[in-house]
Amino acid sequence: MKEVSTPSSQDVVFYVLDSxxxxxxxxxxxxxxQKILKAQRQCDxxxxxxxxAQRLSLTLWGxxxxxxxxHSLQNQLPAPIQLWxxxxxxxxxxxLLNLHPDFPEQYSQYQRTxxxxxxxAALIKRGRQRWRQYKQAGFExxxxxxxx
Length: 148
What we know:
Rossmann fold
């Protein structure tokens, strides 16, 4: 019998940065991706738009010369980190990193969902809304405040 994933086998984590710059957010995401790869996990990153995905891709390419962060845009190449600009068409079903301002409807397909927020008023407001949505779905999200 196939085991069904329930909220008790999944978790939701919020990282709240003390900065409001896209560069600080991208650097934090790159560091997080490096940890995800080190743990031999796979990650889908949901970005707000094509420009955000391209900017993050450049950050991942240049994060640390001694440790390459293997990634691809829109699943163009097989890689453990996939950047998406719209609907995730081929979910890896391990880690979902949501950088999009809207609630990720596909979160239940993943073992871990990570929300990264900065101090911009719009993201904080939407982050609070997403927090309530996860709570309503039966999750007890964890929050980590991060100094950039």
